[in-house]
Amino acid sequence: MSGMDLKYTELHDDQFGITMRVKNVLYSGKSEFQKIDILDTEFFGRVLLLDGLVMTTEKDEIFYHEMIAHIPMISHPAPKDILVIGGGDGGTIREVLRHPSVKRAVLCEIDGEVIEVSKKFLPQLASALDDPRVDIQVRDGIEYIAQSKNEFDIILIDSTDPMGPGEGLFTEEFYKNVNAALKDGGIMVCQSESPFADQKEIKMMQPLLKKAFPIVKTYAGPMPTYPGGYWSWTFCSNTVTPLEFVDETRADEIAKGSKLYNKDLHRAVFALPNFVKELVGE
Ligand code: SPD
C-alpha cells in the first residue's frame, strides 16, 4: 500500500502485478492462519486479501465463482450433496445453491475468521452462507475429506494458492481422498492456477491429479484480478467425461441469472489454446 493517494499492488513472483486505487481499508487483521484485509477500491469495489494476495473482488468474483460451480453442477444429472473446501468468502456456495437439486452444501473452511469477515464486509458473496441447506464446518479440509467416504456428488476445491494454509490441498493423497469421498458418478473441480503466470504449479498439479483420477480435464477463462488475468480449473472424475452430458434445460435456467455462464460458454471453456494443451499434457 502506498501514500496519501492510496494504492494497493500485488506483485506476482516479484515480477509484475496488479494495482488498484484504494478508497479505504475497511478491515485488517491476523487470524491463526493468515493475514486478512478488506479494501474498498474505486474500480473493483471491496477486495478480500489473504496474506496480501487478492482472493476475490466484488467486481470480478463472478468470473471465478460461476466457472468453478456451474461447469461441474451442470455436468451431473442431479447434484444433491455438495462439498466446498476453502471458499470461506461464500461465493462458490452461493452459486452452488442456485441449483434446485441441492439438498446439502457443506462448506469446510479452515479459517473461521475469513467466514466472519466476509459475512460482515462482503454480503454480496457471503449472504448465501445463512441458507438452511448450508452446513459450515470450520476445520481442516484435509482431515475432513479423509473421513468422508462415498458422500458427495460434487466436491469443489476453492483453495488459496499452493502455499500457506492451502498447501496441503495440492497433494496426491488429498486428491485420492477426494476421489474416495465422491459418490458414483461424482465430479471434483479444483481451482488450478494461471496457465500464463503459474506454469510451474500447473505442471506440478497435473500428474498428481492424474494419479488420483482417470478423467482429468482442465478448462480456462478470464479472471481479471488474478495473476496473468487468465485462470484455470480442473475437472476430475472416475466416470464423467466433460461435455458428454450437458443438461441444456438446466444450463439455460442457470444462464438466466448469470453474468458469464451459458451452455455455449460451458463447451467453449474446454477448448484450450495450444500452449495450455501442452502444459496439461493434451
Ligand atoms: N491467486 C489467487 C487464487 C485464489 C483462488 N481462490 C479464490 C477464492 C475465491 N472464492
Structure at a glance:
This protein is an alpha/beta fold and 282 residues long. Helix content is 30%, strand content 32%. The site of spermidine has 13 residues, from β5 and α2.
What does this molecule look like?
With 282 residues, the chain is of the alpha/beta class. The protein is built from ten helices and twelve strands. It has helices at 61-74, 91-96, 112-121, 123-126, 141-146, 172-181, 199-212, 248-256, 263-268, 274-280; strands at residues 7-12, 16-30, 35-41, 45-50, 53-57, 81-86, 104-109, 134-138, 152-158, 182-191, 215-222, 230-237. It has a seven-stranded mixed beta sheet with strand order 8-7-6-9-10-12-11, sandwiched between helices. The protein is globular, with a radius of gyration of 18 Å. 46% of the residues are buried.
Using brief descriptors, characterize the structure shown:
282 residues, 5-stranded antiparallel beta sheet, 30% helix, globular
* Form type: globular
The secondary-structure class comes to alpha/beta
| Spatial ordering of strands, largest sheet | 8-7-6-9-10-12-11
What small molecules does this complex bind? spermidine
- Round the mean pLDDT to the nearest integer and report it: 97
Give the SSE order as H and E letters: EEEEEHEHEHHEHEHEHEEHHH
With helices defined by DSSP (H or I, 4 residues minimum), what is the helix count? 10
Sheet having the most strands? 7 strands, mixed
* Beta-strand fraction estimate: 25-35%
C-alpha termini separation: 41 Å
Number of DSSP strand runs = 12
Low-confidence stretches are none
What fraction, in percent, of the residue positions are helical? 25-40%
